Amino acid sequence: MDPVLNPYRPGAGRRPPLLAGRESTLQAFEVLRRRAEEFGEGDRSWVLNGLRGVGKTALLNELLARANERQWITAKVEAGAGTALPVALSQSLVRATRTATGAHPGGGLQRWLGVLKSFSLKVDPSGAVGVGVDVEPLRGLADTGRFGDDLAMLMEVLGDTARTLGIGVLVLVDELQEAAPDELQAINTAIHHLGQQDSPPPVTFVGAGLPSLPAQLADATSYAERLYDYRPIGLLGEDAARAALVVPASARDVLWDEDAISAALTTAGGYPYFLQSVGKHVWDQARSTPITAEDVDIGLADARREVDDGLYRSRWERATPAQRDLLRALAVLGAADPASIADIARHMRKARTSDLSVARIELIKKGLVYAPERGLLAFTVPGMHDFVDRQA
Questions:
Q1: Is residue 112 part of a domain?
Q2: Is residue 6 part of a domain?
Q3: Is residue 16 situated within a structural domain?
Q4: CATH code assigned at 148
Q5: Which of 44, 51, 151, 305 has the fewest Cβ atoms within 10 Å of its own Cβ atom?
């Protein structure tokens, strides 16, 4: 079939044609949006946590698009991307403010601009982060040099401004697990401050990261366990996975026969990234509608190669020989569930679990594994155990 009409979109952070299985999250955001616009109130901020490739970034981008449609003040950054989080947030908020100035001319942004300039000058004394308008910094507001206190004041003033304009504020931080502990503590402090007000301002923070993120936030400040609305983002159930393949094709007047969809769903296992890759390659191999099991057999081979080379192999090749030994043991013991470090050490015939400490810590730093709980280890990418088994 015509590749130009192919509706599937594999890739990091790309929005699929249908965000199947995420309806409850999108409905909750609609409630949050209405509270902000109709009552000028904010609700609890969110944390989206899940494995790599399950669609966290795509979901953030969808929330961002919906907020931008309503002319909200929005900012989106990625933690650990080479820029300190305070500077990245300042840069993104400056860009958002320029957009807001055009969308809401004469909308009472002067005080916010002054506070933003104070914050920006403090986090980046070089002045590289410029507000872009001739405004004096408001001394004594958001300029203490304590990130948590300054961020709280910044968000409070921004929330008051948004309330006046009848809109909300959405701040998104992707890969939040990469933030430094003091940055996580500062974010918790700022969100806690906003939530304690009698009428919380219409500011929503959404952080996304690996399944270990809730524990990291709780380690930063104990009250983080009650601070956020935690929303795990997992693999898709059968109905949602089926919809992710069938609905976009149907919109192009293309059908899947039952044997074809069954084979595709069995192989993809509800993994959103793999589902998009399967859909793309099967579509390109199919000659007509309906898509058949034979089309799926041919397309799956191409999809497997794409996922292997683009997702798994690069991670495997970053590992040293010693780290690969640990990954092999984890693949055997942790195919479906996290494996204990003690079991991994026994499988590798190590006398002590501490013998694995260096390899374990380096693999966590490289983003190949994470610790869902103390003493446990798991892959950050669904299906990685199968790839590792095949390398052996």
A1: yes
A2: no
A3: no
A4: 3.40.50.300
A5: 305
- 226/77 same-domain check: yes
The domain boundary, picked from 197, 214, 232, lies at 232
Query: What are the structure tokens assigned to 62, written together?
Result: 């969808």
Question: Mean pLDDT for each consecutive 10-residue tract of the chain (392 residues)?
Answer: 90 88 96 95 95 94 95 93 88 82 64 84 67 68 88 91 92 95 94 89 95 93 93 95 96 95 94 94 93 93 91 92 95 85 95 93 91 90 92 76
Asked if the structure places residue 12 within a domain, the reply is: no
